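Next up, a specimen:

>
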Amino acid sequence: MHPARILAEMKVRGYTYKDVCKTCGVHPSSFYNTIHRRPFVSPKVERELSRILEIPMEELWPDRKVMVA
C-alpha cells in the first residue's frame, strides 16, 4: 500500500504516526522507514499498522515477505 494511503487510512481511523510510535516504543524514523519500505523496517510497526487499519500485512506490503515474530 502506498505510504500516503497508509497515512490517510490512519487519519480516517483517528490515529497519527506519533500514536503508533508511542504504542510500539519506536523512534519516528522507524515508522517512516517501515511505511516507505526502507531496508530497516520495524516488525512492531508493521503489526500495529495491520491491526489499526484492519488489513493483513500481506495486503499492506504484497511485494515483501513479512517477518513473523
Remarks:
- Residues 3-60 form a domain with the 434 Repressor (Amino-terminal Domain) fold (CATH 1.10.260).
- The chain has one domain: 3-60.
- The CA atoms of residues 6 and 35 lie 8 Å apart.
